[in-house]
Design goal:
With 378 residues, this protein is of the alpha/beta class. It has helices at 2-31, 35-44, 49-59, 62-102, 122-129, 136-146, 163-175, 190-204, 221-229, 283-292, 302-311, 330-336, 355-366, and strands at residues 107-116, 148-156, 178-184, 205-214, 218-219, 237-243, 273-282, 316-319, 343-344. It has 13 helices and nine strands. Residues 1-5, 28-43 and 94-103 have low confidence and may be disordered. Keywords: Glycosyltransferase, Golgi apparatus, Manganese, Membrane, Signal-anchor, Transferase, Transmembrane, Transmembrane helix.
C-alpha cells in the first residue's frame, strides 16, 4: 500500500509539472507569429518613398530614367559650382581682411586704371595728359567724387637710382600720376609686371574693377566706367576684346612663344583671351592673382599669361567690342551714330600708329567730351 501511495503521488506530481510545462510552451507558441506570418507582415508594410521611386523608374520608360540621370548630373554640377564660388569668396575675404589689417591706407574705389608705360615713353604720357587723361588737379577730384583712379604704371631700371629712375621721379613730382612697382623694366618681363601690378593695386585700393591699358591707346573714361557699371553685380568677370591668335613657333619673330610645344601641333591657336591693349577684371579675380602670384606661370606674351591664369576658373568672358575700335574713320562713324567707343587703336600696330603725333586728332574726332566722365552715375 505504501509503495502504491508513493507511486501515486509521484505520478500526480509529474502530471502537474507536465501540465504547467505544456501551458508555458503553448503560450509562447500563441504569442510568437510563424515565419509565414512574418513574411506577410513585412509585405504589408508601406513601401519607402525612395524604393517606390526607384521601382517606378525601373518599371517606367527608358527616357524617364535618362531624364532623372540628367537632372541628378545637373544638380551635382550646380552644387560643385556653388561650393567653388563659396571657397573663392571665402579666400578673397580672408586675404582682403589681412591686407586691410596690415595696410590701413587701403582706399575704396570703383575702378583702378593702370596705364602700362616705359622709361622711353615720356612723349606718349604727355600726349595722354593733353587729351583723355584728366589734369593733375582733376585726378584727385575724380578719385574722391567718382572712385576712378588712374596711374601710369612703371618699375625701376636695372641700376636703381640711376638717370632713368631720377627722370621718372622728377615727372612724378610734377604730375603725381605714377604707380611705381618693385620690378625691373624690360619688354620680356611684361608678364611678370602684370602679375605684380594686380598684386600691388589690390593691396592699395579696394575696387570693383581693375583695368590695364597701354600708353598708346585712346581711352574714353566715361564710356569705360559706364560699360563696367553694367557688370557690377556679376562675380568673376573678365572683359576685353577676346581673340585666339596663332601660336608663333618661329624663333626670332615678334611674339615668339618659347613654350609653343605646350599648345600642341604647329599651326594651333591660343585659347580665347583678351587682347593686351586693354582689359578689365573684377575684384575677386584680381584678388585671386594677388594670392597666387608666385605660382602663376608666365608665357612669352602678357595677354596670354593673364588668359591662362583665369582659364581654369569659373570665369565669365565678356567679348566687349567697344574696347577695340579702330582709329578714324571707324571710331568716328560709331560716335556719330551714338556708339561712342571705349578704346581706339590700330590692330596693325598693336596700338595707335605714331600715337604721339595722332593722339590729339583722334581725341578731337572720337573723344566723348571732357565732361562725360562726370555725368556717369555710379
Amino acid at each position: 500500500m505504501r509503495g502504491k501511495a508513493g507511486s501515486g503521488k509521484t505520478i500526480l506530481f509529474v502530471c502537474i509539472a507536465c501540465f504547467l510545462a505544456g501551458t508555458l510552451f503553448n503560450g509562447q507558441m500563441w504569442t510568437r507569429p510563424s515565419n509565414h506570418e512574418n513574411e506577410n507582415t513585412l509585405l504589408r508594410l508601406p513601401p519607402r518613398p525612395d524604393c517606390d521611386h526607384k521601382r517606378k523608374l525601373i518599371e517606367g520608360k527608358p527616357g524617364d530614367v535618362m531624364e532623372e540621370v540628367v537632372k541628378t548630373h545637373q544638380a551635382i554640377k550646380s552644387l560643385d559650382k556653388a561650393v567653388s564660388t563659396l571657397e573663392m569668396e571665402l579666400t578673397a575675404s580672408q586675404t582682403g581682411g589681412r591686407q586691410r589689417s596690415s595696410n590701413h591706407s587701403v582706399q575704396k574705389a570703383f575702378v583702378v586704371i593702370g596705364i602700362n608705360t616705359a622709361f622711353s615713353s615720356k612723349r606718349r604720357r604727355d600726349s595722354i595728359r593733353q587729351t583723355w587723361l584728366s589734369k593733375r588737379n582733376q585726378l584727385k577730384e575724380l578719385e574722391k567724387e567718382k572712385g576712378i583712379v588712374v596711374r601710369f604704371v612703371i618699375g625701376h631700371s636695372t641700376t636703381p637710382g640711376g638717370i632713368l629712375d631720377k627722370a621718372i621721379d622728377a615727372e612724378e613730382a610734377e604730375h603725381k600720376d605714377f604707380l611705381r612697382l618693385d620690378h625691373v623694366e624690360g619688354y620680356h618681363e611684361l608678364s611678370t609686371k602684370t602679375r605684380l601690378y594686380f598684386s600691388t593695386i589690390t593691396s592699395m585700393w579696394d575696387a570693383d574693377f581693375y583695368v590695364k591699358v597701354d600708353d598708346d591707346i585712346h581711352l574714353n573714361l566715361g564710356m569705360l566706367v559706364s560699360t563696367l557699371a553694367k557688370y557690377r553685380s556679376r562675380p568673376r568677370i573678365y572683359i576685353g576684346c577676346m581673340k585666339s591668335g596663332p601660336v608663333l613657333y618661329q624663333k626670332g619673330v615678334k611674339y615668339h612663344e618659347a613654350e609653343n610645344w605646350k599648345f600642341g601641333e604647329e599651326g594651333n591657336k591660343y585659347f580665347r583671351h583678351a587682347t593686351g591693349q586693354i582689359y578689365a577684371i573684377s575684384k575677386d579675380l584680381a584678388t585671386y592673382i594677388s594670392i597666387n602670384w608666385p605660382i602663376l606661370h608666365r608665357y612669352a606674351n602678357e595677354d596670354v599669361s593673364l588668359g591662362s591664369w583665369l582659364l581654369g576658373l569659373e570665369v565669365e568672358h565678356v567679348d566687349e567690342r567697344s574696347m577695340c575700335c579702330g582709329t578714324p574713320p571707324d571710331c568716328d562713324w560709331k560716335a556719330r551714330t551714338g556708339n561712342v567707343c571705349v578704346a581706339s587703336f590700330d590692330w596693325s600696330c598693336s596700338g595707335i600708329c605714331k600715337s604721339v603725333e595722332r593722339m590729339r586728332d583722334i581725341h578731337k574726332t572720337c573723344g566723348e567730351g571732357d565732361g562725360a566722365v562726370w555725368n556717369v552715375d555710379l
